[in-house]
Amino acid sequence: MRVKNGKDFWAGLMFVGFGLCFMTISLRYPMGTTAQMGSGYFPTVLGGLLAILGGAVFLRAFVSKFANPFHVFHFRPLLFTAALVIGGAITFAHGWLKDMPMTKYALVGMALASFIGAFGPRALFVILLSVVIFGYAIKPLGLVLAIVLLIVLSALGGYDFRKKEIVILTMGLALFGVLAFVKGLGLPFDLWPGEW
Amino acid sequence: MDSLLLNNLGVGFTIALSLQNLVYCFFGVLLGTLIGVLPGIGPLATIAMLLPVTFGLSPISALIMLAGIYYGAQYGGSTTSILVNIPGEVSSVITCLDGYQMARQGRAGPALAISAIGSFFAGCVATVVIALFAPPLAEVALRFAPAEYFSLMVLGLVGSIVLARGSLVKAIAMTILGLLLGLIGTDVTTGNLRLSFGLPELSDGINFIVVAMGVFGFTEIIINLEKGRSREVASKKVTGLMPTLEDLRHSFGAILRGTAVGSVLGILPGGGAMLASFAAYTLEKKIGDASRFGEGEIRGVASPEAANNAGAQTSFIPMLTLGIPSNPVMALMIGALMIQGIAPGPQVMTQRPELFWGIIASMWIGNLMLVVLNLPLIGIWVKLLTVPYRLLYPSILLFCCIGVYSLSNSAFDVMLTALFGLMGYIFVKLECEPAPLILGFILGPLMEEHLRRAMRLSRGDATVFFTNPISGVLLGVSLVLLLITLAPAVRRKREAVFEE
Question: How many angstroms separate the CA of residue A123 from the nearest CA in chain B?
């Protein structure tokens, strides 16, 4: 059998995966009866439906009249496996890592980075990682430095990086961010690295 | 018009004309025009960004502003379509066809003017349509039992499935995935924690801003960067803004038809601005001299532009009267209501009439502001187009991040948004339309709640959904809609429409 429509092939697998995942988790919750539905009823039914539909999409990939290449986007199995291994290790060593928050953060970061990096183009990796870094930097480093990190890192993901422009843009946005969000809207952000 | 309606509209105008609300209305339409002009950022991402900010506003000001962004974007989007041949918004894709041709023939001014005039006319009519049709609809909906509500939501979801582009099965699967994601967190009926993967951060469920921002905002940026596009402004100088009398006379009918098509399609579940503009253009082409379309026919600008604005506005009807969003933007509006502690549904109109009528009145005022903003100030918007995307996207990213972070001041939400960004990218690459997912996500918990209630009332008898007349009709319509879409002839036509 040859896969005619790569997009259907992967979409089908994705839906089946999601469906089975939701269904198996939901099976652990009380089902109840049709008159008194428990927490598990609706999600189990939906998960099963999703898996069935996913199966249909998957099978359609072999007979589809639309032709799409098997490789829809970059996928790096090595990084993906690495992400799963690190992620599994974190779950496994959960209790042991409790006393070492920094190590745990670093490991979670590595798992996340390799997971995102396993898919798609450079822009995807750079943009999403700069976003995650912003999220984790804003509390310890303060808003200003977090903005600097976000803008500079995300600009690296573009197709045309100009140093001078980025410096000006970063300063402008940092100033605007502080004035608009902290002074104007009163959002409770620290501006600079505080005591932590 | 009866006196009650006039009375209500009067109340609405007093609220909308208060200084504070005028300022928010102006801010909304200004921002809407801005992001409409700029390709690469749409009303959806903007509204999602601003949602956390609206927490500090009064409900009415918040909704007036957010609504302004949506219909403002319809005005702004046409400017980019006409001048650059890149749609500023998805709803102005079709305007590129004839609008850009007109610009190349040196008639950019009349094209811009007719699109603004058409939009204004459509906006005014749509406002009246909402005022006339929404109250009776809400009255009917107030008497809905759980079974009827459940079926209504099924119809809403089926609508968005039928109108999604691409494969029908994938759209259904995306809806179900959205419903499932919506169920994560605490089960409202029993108080049990479920599907939270042991993460305490998920006990309140996933905030839908996280989903919307990831799947729409981030994904859009990544896809744009991957394409690495450049754009050029066709004509930097727009001269001779006013259309001739001949132009006006020629396009008057087109504006009328566009308004009618847009008003009807906006109300339908799954409808809204984009669908309206496509349908209006097709209709115009059928009626008029088809060979002139695509060559700078002014009707090809007037009709879709009127339609997308009308559709944008009338899509508020199901949101305001039934509490059911007909498109992702309306789903965000529902979110804005919930942030304000207002449960969306037909009771909004009876309990908070000032909210409903204030929004209606503000739409009319907003449209007036937009004409002023768009016609004389067109030069400013054209200049804006020269801002390169490499400067734009880091700024957009920053606003998205701050918006998400401020939801609960947690890095976890930001990380989750990034994961949804990744999912969104995969969805796009696999041709899975994300709009049904977002609707499912919003409706998931509501649907389950009504399903449970209906089943409890009927003592576990599922036939209640078919024996109850209203519910039966709604489910029947859903089924027919699905079957029609599956019919070979319609299927081919549907594929052709989305190909264009």
Answer: 6
The conformation of residue B194, written as its DSSP 8-state character, comes to: E
C-alpha A45/C-alpha A189 separation (Å) is 43
Distance CA B194, CA B202 (A): 9
Is residue B251 within 8 Å of B304, Cβ to Cβ? no
The chain-wide mean pLDDT, for chain B, equals 85
> Over the stretch B435-478, which tens digit does the pLDDT of each residue have?
889 888 888 888 999 999 999 999 888 888 998 888 999 899 89
A41-63 helix and A6-26 helix, angle to the nearest 10 degrees: 160
> Tell me, what's the ipTM?
0.92
pTM: 0.86
Residue A37: strand pairing partners: A32
CB atoms under 10 Å from CB of B295, counted, come to 12
d(CA B304, CA B195): 44
How far away is chain A from the Cα of B290, in angstroms, using its nearest Cα? Answer: 30
Quick check: B167 and A161 CB within 8 A? no
Judge whether residue B234 has pLDDT over 80. no
Spatial separation of the C-alpha atoms in residues B105 and B84, rounded to whole Å: 13
A–B CB contacts, 8 A cutoff, strictly below: 195
Helix axes B43-54, B328-339, angle to 10 degrees: 0
